Amino acid sequence: VQLVESGGGLVQTGGSLRLSCVVSGLPFESYAIGWFRQAPGKEREGISYIIKRAGDRYISDSAKGRFTGSSDNAQNTVYLTMNNLKPGDTSVYYCAADTPVVIVTVVMLGREIDRVEFWGKGALVTVSS
Question: Among 10, 15, 23, 44, fewest CB within 10 Å belongs to which?
Fold first, then answer.
């Protein structure tokens, strides 16, 4: 199983980026894919998830209105489009895959992050002021 993030980089305040996560080695339609971020010195935070089979999407309150999750089934790829970026968004962004129950629990409730089985290596997003 592989999850590979791309699209990170340096952007000014107010700018936009789109992160991609290509998933291979597992049945894309049967798993939930989550986006997480971890700022220096802070715990990893769940931002969004997509459960393609259920047609379910979620964006956390901290990201709502600025970030959007989407997917391209044909390419086994999920995206996180980030607009109006702020310095506080500076983090390493990770995508992760697991069963819907695990991803929903971790992203929405902020619990049991160690249960998530498959992680990408992360993409660094730096927002300058």
Answer: 10
pLDDT in tens, 18-59: 999 999 998 878 899 999 999 999 999 999 999 988 788 999
Q: Is the Cβ–Cβ distance between 81 and 16 less than 8 Å?
A: yes
Distance CA 36, CA 69 (A): 12
Q: How far apart are CA 127 and CA 101, in angstroms?
A: 32
Angstrom distance (rounded) from CA 126 to CA 103: 25
Residue 61 token pair = 């309150």
